[in-house]
Amino acid sequence: MTSTRFRNAALVGHEASGKTTLAEAMLHKAKAINRFGRVVDGNTTCDFDPEEKDQRKSIDSALAHLTWKDHDITLIDTPGAQDFVRDALSALHAVEMAVFCVDAGGGVKVNTRLLWAKLMAQALPRIIVVTRHDSENVSFDEILGEIREAFGDRCIPLNVPDADGPDFKAVQSTLVLQDGASERAKALNEQILEAIVESDDAVLERYFNGEKIPEEDISRTFRKALLGGTLTPILFVAAEKEIGVEEVLDAIVDYGPSPADRPVRVVQKEGEDPTDVQEDGPFTAFVFKLVSDEHVGKLCFFRIFSGSIKPGDSFKIARTRKSARTGQIYRVQGTHQEAMEIAEAGQIVAVAKIDELALSDTLRAPTVDWVFPAIEYPFPMVAFSVHPKSRGDEQKISTALQKLAEEDRTFRFERDETTRELVIRGMSDLHLQILLRRMKRRFKVEVETRTPKIPYKETITKGIKYVEYTHKKQTGGAGQFARVYIDIEPTERGAGYEFKDKIVGGSIDQPLRGSVDKGIHAKMVEGVLAGYPVVDLKVTLVDGKTHPVDSKDIAFQIAGREVFKKAFMVAGPVLLEPIVDISITAPNAFMGDIISDLNGRRGRIVNTTANGGMQTIDGRVPLAEIMKYSTELKSKTGGEGTYSIAPAHYDAVPTHIQDKIVARARLAKEKGEG
User: Model pTM?
Assistant: First the structure.
């Protein structure tokens, strides 16, 4: 199998954990690049976007390639901030292993824990690289203890630093003891050997019978343990000094899985049970990243799981069931694209200018009908309403937002039907600000932003019967006359609007009964209490009266509007507000403040879960109370707290808050703003 020479690994971990610098060191060590770039100088291979250089952090994932021991390694350097988690989640669908970076001085941060939990569910093999072990005041024992507390005692050092802090000059293997091995290495040697042999019963028996296990058997069993997830090796580096970098590359090649080792990439055959893809089968690939490149246009990155593809080949897009043809196929190194004559199973490549492609698309040969499961992205938590700075830019803004949303599934935009605002949504203020700067740079269009209005709704809480309204208008000519009687009652939340005609006989002509419904519906859209749409009620037309000359459609529409307004205001009118499910994860030390703050936001705690030094709070809270929670939680936890939300339901607004909202709406209407 040709794919045995490939290794695909995602570098993951909290922001500022040293991922980009480690990637740069690995590329330099393998002579894939001639110059060692630095994040602070903005000249690394993987951080090349203007916003990344400005922020001095990764915002998008970036691909890099190197050759080590005759193996082709593809690295995906992923952003570590929760703001840009979409690229980390996407990258994990394209690789066989994850390299978790943990800063020796900063320790195990929250986003590293969250990604670890996700990969445990996916059973993706992983190694841990402790970065910057040459920093001041670092301790091998402390960082090892923190890693094991967070991820378990099956995390075993594959090597150890010869010293802590600036005295760190080399690493020593704990697997194969060399002459002059330190006491630290010797102490861990037996521990790692026992952890390795436990994954193979035959080797375990030989080991406990006192037999010396040959090095090749240890390596084979170690690889089996790593692939099976029963052991996670830890390696130590000082990447800028290239200390320990060679050993990381060795571990990826010697012990890491190849595509041939993990063929269990489940695809769903439409209408049938899941099946597995074999690399020698027909062409199938999965789109995990899109970029709008200023020079080559839309660049689509995909991982090939079976078969091969060449420039000019045709394939089918599962989502659209349409055919497309490849142009040039590229291997991407940062910003550089290298043309390829053929791309094979196990490789990660890019194609340009196929506008039909979207994230999570399955590409396949015409002979198969498989579909890969789509990437699941978190719900965007922060919203801005946007307004054009220049008149006539509405269409340009819509086009630009569409392009940005194609690349980033944690970014969404829509015209809110309730507030009639154009609303953009993302993972944080920073996320949205960076996307708007990109929009200005790429598409030459600017917007102003505001806090969006809350999409309240209106409804009633009790039923009222036989409410009457008479519309009577007399002009010089024909007049207008309509009299209607209605019953009104609330329905279940989410049931919507129901109109029922219960008139017996001909007190209102049949066509005019529909006019009443039309008038009621128009008033529901406009709102009665504070200008928000009315929902979840039933109106029954029970009686009325017509005039042989003056009764007409417009008269009964007006009567419908006015009788509905009259009935609504005496039927216990209330405002409904959106409630969201919220999940907050932070270190234990901040839990008291977070719970107190959440209670102050009218939140309700549903559940708390402890995990080592972290806790997760699950609760429900009104959307209006957390419009700026991203910034506030970062401030409250020193950047160590993270959260996610998802829409839950609508609930009644407390009376004292409703009164203020209604008063503001009336004032805005008087000023002509509503």
Answer: 0.87
